Amino acid sequence: MTVVAGCILPDGALLGADSRVTVRSSDGSTYVSDNAAKIIRLGPATAVGYSGDLATVSWLFGHLFGPQLKRRRLDPVSVRRWLPRFLRDTYARLARRYPVGSVVFLVASSVKGRLTRMPKALVLATLQPASDRELNNWLVLRLLNNINCPGDFFDIPDSSMGMLYKLESPNFLPIDYGPLSFAAIGSCRAARDSLNAYELLFAVDHPNRAVVWFLDAMVGFLRDTEEDTVGGLLLIVAAQHGRVTAIGYEDDPQVRKARVGITLKDGRFVAHVDGREVILRYPGELQRQGPLPPLVLDDLKKATQAEVERRASLRARLDPNRPSTKSE
Predict the structure, then answer these.
(1) 6-48 pLDDT, tens digit each
(2) In the chain, how many domains are there?
(3) Helix, strand, coil % in the chain, rounded to nearest 5
(4) Is the whole model's pTM more than 0.85, yes or no?
(5) Domain that includes residue 17, residue range
(6) Which conformational region is residue 224 in: left (phi greater than 0), alpha (psi within -120 to 50 degrees), or beta?
(7) Number of Cβ atoms within 10 Å of the Cβ of 115
(8) CA-to-CA distance for 215 and 250, rounded, in angstroms?
(9) In the chain, what is the straight-line distance between the N-terminal and C-terminal CA atoms, in Å?
């Protein structure tokens, strides 16, 4: 199983994935790898997460990242136009020669120079819930100078428009997600539930905190899930202002003493874990390299009691059914 999840923020988009895959060798045997790059960078402003049959993903990526890619326009709007058609045609050709399996892609981009446009009704719907939970509504504060402007939409100042869409075999018809929405593929229901718990914070909290809450939701999912096939490192990427960047994270100090750094190196995601450098591998590389020496990157599943209590307290505060504590 896999989990790849994404969300559209008031400024850009986020995409996250675990790093564990089960690889089937040519002799029919299987092994588990904890260094899979389930998110691949496609140009400077787009990231693609995948779920499904690893061999089929490998074949599709082998064609996608071939020499023809240099002739493609890689700005987010152009990618949104040609990528579904490319995947559909390539998948159909492969199906005539190989036993292809089901695959799903989740694509996140940001458009440099284009502001996020958000429906006024969506923004105003955050006022009462944020007030009831005594949260600072940074989203509304950013819009104070525009609050009385005509029209049904707000343009968020100093933002970059985020794009998030899903492509599923065999037709790869795009399913687009709007502002402040979430999507997940793979073990999607539990991951979506974890993200939904933070919905209000994604919308109204300070923009710099969005990554913190996304990490908290994804780490919470990995630690709560009972699926052994989901695990390893957590790869988080941000698509903002026309750039894709990797997000390192600090784990609970009672569990891990060192920072988990994820960097982009020559277009590849590289993890720095407790002094080790771990290159996150493409699907084709995972199939070619064979079983690895023992590589256990499962510390994210070791939750402390303090962490469990903190997350439970936060989610109880954010519960939409929680009565307001403010005096009338």
Answers:
(1) 999 999 999 999 888 877 766 667 777 778 899 999 999 999 9
(2) 1
(3) 35, 30, 40
(4) yes
(5) 3-318
(6) alpha
(7) 15
(8) 10
(9) 48
